[in-house]
């Protein structure tokens, strides 16, 4: 699918398209993607996200993760490899990533706000399929994302 987020914005002005802040950069190897959102709220610890990427089929899915911009590396080459192996399209993270020399070589999208080499080791709880709000954008499981080198757009319904 040839995704052009700019064209999608122009052609769907009546559809309440949300655009994520350009603070988010792609540290993954997949530069154009689309898919259905699954939301996860973390409290610093990434173990639930790790289990999900490792154990669940992510065909056609994009996981949107809110770690409240806590300064810990949440996703690195290990989680990205799990994501790739289970066909997850991309990870959008309100937080930080690490191992980025490696994550860039893995064919999965990985948008985040920056890098941090330190991870969190404490196991805390997480919440699936709840509404997330960050940088002025609302995300719900079942919404759609389209992304390319211009950025990320979020819509309630599938556009293409
Ligand atoms: O191990 C972790 O928790 C995060 C990480 O570095 C990886 O996914 O490679
Ligand atoms: Mg690592």
Automatic annotation (TrEMBL):
UniProt-recorded name of the protein: 4-hydroxy-4-methyl-2-oxoglutarate aldolase
Protein purpose: Catalyzes the aldol cleavage of 4-hydroxy-4-methyl-2-oxoglutarate (HMG) into 2 molecules of pyruvate. Also contains a secondary oxaloacetate (OAA) decarboxylase activity due to the common pyruvate enolate transition state formed following C-C bond cleavage in the retro-aldol and decarboxylation reactions.
Quaternary structure and partners: Homotrimer.
Gene3D superfamilies: Ribonuclease E inhibitor RraA/RraA-like
GO MF, any single term: ribonuclease inhibitor activity
Domain of life: Bacteria
A GO BP annotation: methylation
SUPFAM superfamilies: RraA-like
Family: Belongs to the class II aldolase/RraA-like family.
EC number: 4.1.1.112, 4.1.3.17
NCBIfam families with a match to the protein in the record: NOT-MenG, PRK09372.1
Binding site for substrate: 76-79, 98
Binding residues annotated for Mg(2+), in chain numbering: 99
Cofactors named for this entry: Mg(2+); a divalent metal cation
Keywords, in A-Z order: Lyase, Magnesium, Metal-binding, Methyltransferase, Transferase
Reaction it catalyzes: oxaloacetate + H(+) = pyruvate + CO2; 4-hydroxy-4-methyl-2-oxoglutarate = 2 pyruvate
Xref: InterPro entries: RraA, RraA/RraA-like, RraA/RraA-like_sf
């Amino acid at each position: 699918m040839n995704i052009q987020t700019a064209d999608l914005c122009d052609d769907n002005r009546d559809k309440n398209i949300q655009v994520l802040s350009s603070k988010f950069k792609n540290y993954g190897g997949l530069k154009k993607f689309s898919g259905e959102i699954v939301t996860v709220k973390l409290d610093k610890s990434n173990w639930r996200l790790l289990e999900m990427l490792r154990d669940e089929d992510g065909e056609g899915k994009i996981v949107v993760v809110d770690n409240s911009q806590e300064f810990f590396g949440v996703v690195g080459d290990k989680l990205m490899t799990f994501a790739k192996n289970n066909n997850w399209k991309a990870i959008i993270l309100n937080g930080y990533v690490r191992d980025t020399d490696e994550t860039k070589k893995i064919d999965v999208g990985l948008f985040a706000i920056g890098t941090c080499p330190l991870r969190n080791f404490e196991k805390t709880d997480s919440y699936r399929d709840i509404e997330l709000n960050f940088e002025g954008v609302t995300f719900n499981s079942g919404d759609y994302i389209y992304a390319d080198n211009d950025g990320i757009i979020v819509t309630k319904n599938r556009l293409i």
